Amino acid sequence: MLVLARKKGQSIIVQPGIEITVLDMEGDTVKIGVSAPREVQVMRKELLVSVQEENRQSVGKPLDVGGLSEQLKKMKKSLK
């Protein structure tokens, strides 16, 4: 892990087009800004971990397809 000290207003370039800037510091909280192209997904780590956990839990659950067969039959009839 690379560890850098930055002051308010200073930035870190991750790669061309991706810049992380220290916006403000209050106590032990640091407010940062991330500038990146729209196609680069930026999210909080705790959100990503939460989504990954939800996905892992849902893999083991049986799929609820109650009534799906009837709905498909109705759709097929309406297309004729």
Tell me what the structure shows.
The longest helix is centred in the middle third of the chain and has 15 residues. 34% of the residues lie in helices and 26% in strands. The protein contains 2 helices and 3 strands; from the N terminus they run βββαα. The chain has a domain of 25 residues. The radius of gyration is 23 Å and the shape is elongated. It has a 3-stranded antiparallel β-sheet with strand order 1-2-3, with no helix packed on it. By secondary structure, the protein is α+β, with helices and mostly antiparallel strands. Homodimer; the beta-strands of each monomer intercalate to form a hydrophobic core, while the alpha-helices form wings that extend away from the core. It is found in: Cytoplasm. This is Translational regulator CsrA.
Reconstruct the topology from this structure.
Elements: E1 11-15, E2 18-26, E3 29-35, H1 45-59, H2 68-79
Antiparallel strand pairs: 1-2, 2-3
Subcellular location: Cytoplasm
Pfam family, one: CsrA
Keywords: Bacterial flagellum biogenesis, Cytoplasm, Repressor, RNA-binding, Translation regulation
What's the quaternary structure here? Answer: single chain
Count every beta strand, where a strand is a DSSP E run of 2 or more residues: 3
Instruction: Tell me the overall shape.
Output: elongated
Beta-strand percent range: 25-35%
Lateral arrangement of strands in the main beta sheet: 1-2-3
Structural class: alpha+beta
Could you tell me the radius of gyration in angstroms? 23 Å
The SSE string, one letter per element, is: EEEHH
Query: Could you give a short account of the major beta sheet?
Result: 3 strands, antiparallel
Distance between the termini: 62 Å
Share of residues in helices: 25-40%
List the total number of helices. Answer: 2
Q: Quote the average pLDDT.
A: 87
Spans where pLDDT lies below 50 across 5 or more residues: none
